[in-house]
Design a protein that fits this description.
Blueprint (H helix, E strand, L loop, with lengths): L1 H22 L6 H4 L11 E7 L7 H10 L5 E4 L1 H6 L1 H9 L3 E4 L12 H19 L5 E2 L8 H10 L2 E2 L4 E2 L9 H10 L6 E5 L10 H17 L3 E3 L7
Parallel strand pairs: 1-2, 1-7, 1-8, 2-3, 4-5, 6-7
Helix pairs in contact: 3-9, 5-6, 6-7, 8-9
Amino acid sequence: MKTTTAAAAVVGAKLTIHIGSFLTHTWILAPISAPWLLGFGHPQSVALTFDDGPDPISTPLILDILDLNQVKATFFVLGEMVDRQPELTREIIERGHELGTHGYWHKNHLWRSARSIRYDLARAIESIETATGTRPTWYRPPYGIITRADLVAAHAEGLRLILWGTWGRDWRRQASSVSVMADIRSRFRPGVTILLHDSDCTSYPGSFQATLAALPQLVDLVNSQQLRFATLSNHGV
């Protein structure tokens, strides 16, 4: 019985740590405990970020829209996608955008060991460096869930953790340009970091179409408030 009780206590303690880490990025606690974690930067700029690419179908289309509107963004790429599309990964940088890492696999870190997370992050960085010759500065864990292991691994690799201040929820089956813009507007303000996706590899198939349709409207919104788009490194986080 003592053994069972002790084991339960250990599991409970670990779960408490994970839950505490998870709550750090929720809308209620994050602005109070860690506003920098949400990517709030210069009040005259907006940071546009994309997760889950590079995708050979959707990423080039998004890059074309960004080019057309002279918008620079930060792409949080998945290592396994980089290994499949090294040339496209290089193209993102060649077009003047910035790369961050989203890990190697898009797996929930709540259920992964510290050793697994360290390996995942190191492998993701290696993939980016091999493909582009550059090392990422920013790290956004899958699902925006930050565990203690993520904090330790990011520090060891010299990466800056970053989440987002508003998002378009563009991964959903029901997503449309209208819903994406409504979700972004709900928490939009000067200095915000916006989360969208340039791939549907972890989302509902075809959901990237909502993102594509919403981007020109997002450009209009930012311009109407006399703000500018910036990569995270130029956003003053």
